[in-house]
Amino acid sequence: MLKNTVEKSRFEIGIYTLGDLVANPHTGNIISAQQRIREIVEAAKLADEAGLDVFGVGEHHRLDYAVSATPVVLAAIAQTTKQIKLTSATTVLSTVDPVRLFEDYATLDLISNGRAEIIAGRGAFVESFPLFGYDMDDYAELFAENIDLFLKLNKSESITWNGKFRSAIHDAEIAPRPAQKQLPIWVGVGGTPESAALAGRLGTGMAIAILGGDPQRFKPLVDVYRKSGIEEGHDLSNLNVGVTGHGYIAKTTQQAKEEFYPYYSNYWKYVNGQRGISTKMSRADFEQMSSPETALFVGNPQQIIEKILQQYEMFGHHRFMAQIDIGGVPFNKIAEGIELLATEVAPVVKREINKYNEI
């Protein structure tokens, strides 16, 4: 980490959900979309009360996920929370009208008293392209055009704009305006230097999805992002990096692994099945994936602390968000994980990072 050049700022810790509807591996039961959304709202309430900093909700457009209208769910969460920041995770920006997106999140920002954010990405799932009438051949161009328009909408109360994929805008008033001066926007990056460089040039935040393996391989992306941002004239202090990853926390490491393995194996069996891959995750595979040098956050609070701090040494990032509700994990275990993350992990991580930055 570039300790002397990366701006010191408050480190944030939170959780996010994609709202997957996966069968519980122990019972075979799948909860309804209605129950899943209720549990998402309740999880956000618990995270807010426990003192976590941010809560994210993902977007999918298929029956095996509960959330497609992300700003609607976040607006419901806004009504039952007080302090926690509310973000998409992620918005598939290539297949949404940027004007409508801005209006939705500006309204959310007003409802939540200035807590709305957006993580924008191209999307790992592509069902929204045919659903909303877009061509996959325009995948990259759509994203580039839409984020350009969104950033202009974010800066100005009225704009004139012309592009390739939607009708031109002539001296249009963009309303409502958010409670914040501008909506914070992050670009979600999976693993390509091109995406990292784009986020840097645009001056947005960059949220990296690190779902496993050696996190060190993502260090070049952070370097490219900051280099591109500085070359474009952006202030380094505004080039925020977030890390997202899968996790499960319990009082002991053995408990965490014993409890999480059936759900995590179940999750990847389900996801890989969608890709035509039938390989099953063995217990040995899981042990390797959750070892101390990897990016899978499974263990007791101290082990989670150590992994977050190790990644901070690499990236000097500003935010960490864990997805702890995948593969059919029951709500009582999600609630326990929120409590441990908020009370035993977050305070120590923030204290140690503050010490580090004082050196």
From TrEMBL:
Keywords: Monooxygenase, Oxidoreductase. Residues 14-316 form the Luciferase-like domain. It holds the Pfam family Bac_luciferase. It comes from the Bacteria. SUPFAM superfamilies: Bacterial luciferase-like (SSF51679). InterPro entries: Bact_Lucif_Oxidored, Luciferase-like_dom, Luciferase-like_sf. This is LLM class flavin-dependent oxidoreductase. The lineage of its organism: Bacteria, Bacillati, Bacillota, Bacilli, Bacillales.
